[in-house]
Design brief:
Elements: H1 7-19, H2 38-44, H3 49-59, H4 71-84, E1 90-94, E2 114-119, E3 124-134, H5 155-172, E4 175-177, E5 179-186, H6 194-205, E6 209-216, E7 229-233, H7 239-252, E8 257-261, H8 270-275, E9 280-284, H9 308-326, E10 328-332, E11 343-350, E12 355-359, E13 377-385, E14 390-397
Parallel strand pairs: 3-5, 3-6, 6-9, 7-8
Antiparallel strand pairs: 1-2, 2-5, 4-10, 7-9, 11-12, 11-13, 13-14
Length: 399
């Protein structure tokens, strides 16, 4: 997260927000999410603490992830390789120069690109839901130093956010959506939101239709004595997206407190999209009790990241929001080859996520499902095969 200790910046941000209140590049609404979708629940159950830990451990294993150091190119290569392991359609590298958005006399330098992974939509491929996190790290220094040898682990800021986006991409890439999804890893956020600003500005210039942007920046620290809760950073002009995110949270994460908040100082990548006319939001740990170790050599696992449970919760909320905003299509990307697999059992859920029927004693593959005892409505069936695969179908029952 970029820190800017300037009161005038906060005033400037509020003026921009008011000017954009009715100036979104595209106007979009969001679905009502009052009941749990069993397929989305299935996705959330795939979010594991171990995967997030592994990603954060890897990201903090570099000497640093500074945008002006040589190591940032190795981080970029690792991110590309991780995205390519999933069912992502394509990975795109977005080059830019480091020019802080507020700098009137910029001193640009070249750095590693933004890493963008695409999942193409089936019905509205030219409408995009974007989620992202910055992968660079930063340590405050004085005097002369060598950026290539400066230690900057950046565990909470922002290895936790990057891990959340990677987890979201790995899981959602196995499903189909009506809208296209972009999973983004931004660079040079710590130098002034440079990577995300360059990309969002280009999208506006090219009239790209971004339905919503979801940001993860710092998710792993809980102050001693505090309970896990979620602060949502967004401008009032993006209240539709804010209300949607809170509704998704209440539905899938009951018992977790969530509310709108404002950074007392500084900024993060969601603002790049808001300033360019897109609805945008950032999920954040407590803005009044953030990790005191960020931008120091002590931004490490155990000290600065002390709650994997919170990182999992933030990742789940990001995933559920993206899935609903993008419009889930109710079947897997990979169809089951019935010549190699037999269905062992299946489960039927209603739209409230309640299990209404389960068939365990399967002797042959399913040709039909008896639904005489079910009321008219929408149902979702999950089939489990003998080779460990699971696939999901949605059907409408109308008597």
């Amino acid at each position: 997260m970029k820190k800017i200790i300037l009161a005038v910046f906060i005033i400037f941000s509020s003026v921009i927000c008011r000017s954009q209140q009715s100036n979104h590049l595209y106007e979009h609404t969001f679905p009502e999410v009052n009941t749990q979708d069993p397929v989305v629940l299935e996705m959330l159950n795939q979010v594991t603490e171990n995967q997030i830990i592994n990603d954060v451990e890897h990201l903090t294993s570099y000497i640093n992830r500074r945008a002006d150091a040589i190591h940032i190119y190795n981080v970029k290569d690792w991110l590309v390789s991780e995205y390519e392991k999933s069912n992502i359609d394509s990975v795109y590298l977005h080059d830019f120069q480091v020019i802080p958005y507020w700098d009137t006399v910029p001193k640009p330098f070249t750095t590693a690109p933004n890493v963008l992974a695409f999942k193409r939509g089936t019905k509205y491929p030219d409408e995009f839901v974007v989620c992202g996190a910055h992968y660079d790290s930063y340590v405050i220094t004085e005097g002369d130093f060598d950026p290539d040898t400066l230690v900057s682990p950046g565990a909470d800021d922002n290895a936790t956010g990057v891990a959340g986006i990677l987890t979201t991409a790995r899981i959602l890439s196995n499903y189909e959506f009506e809208r296209s999804i972009i999973f983004a890893s931004w660079n040079a956020e710590e130098f002034g939101l440079c990577g995300s600003h360059a990309y969002a500005s280009q999208c506006r210039a090219d009239s790209i239709d971004i339905v919503a942007y979801f940001n993860l920046d710092m998710t792993g620290y809980v102050a001693p004595g505090n309970n896990i809760h979620i602060h949502l950073l967004y401008k009032n002009c993006d209240s539709l997206l804010g209300n949607f995110t809170q509704q998704v949270s209440h539905t899938y994460l009951p018992g977790i407190n969530i509310w709108q908040a404002w950074l007392p100082a500084g900024d993060t990548d969601y603002s790049s999209f808001n300033r360019n006319g897109y609805q945008a939001i950032s999920l954040s740990e407590d803005v009044h009790n953030m990790s005191p170790y960020i931008h120091t050599i002590n931004d490490i696992i155990g000290l600065s990241v002390n709650s994997w449970e919170q990182s999992v919760i933030f990742t789940k909320l990001n995933l559920a929001c993206v899935a609903h905003a993008a419009g889930l299509v109710y079947q897997y990307v990979n169809e089951i080859d019935y010549s190699d697999a037999e269905i062992e059992y299946f489960e039927v859920f209603d739209t409230y996520g309640h299990l209404v029927y389960k068939e365990k004693n399967m002797w042959n593959n399913v040709d039909e499902i008896l639904v005489n005892n079910l009321e008219s409505g929408i149902y979702i069936v999950r089939f489990f095969t003998n080779n460990g695969n699971v696939f999901t179908k949605k059907f409408f029952l109308n008597y």
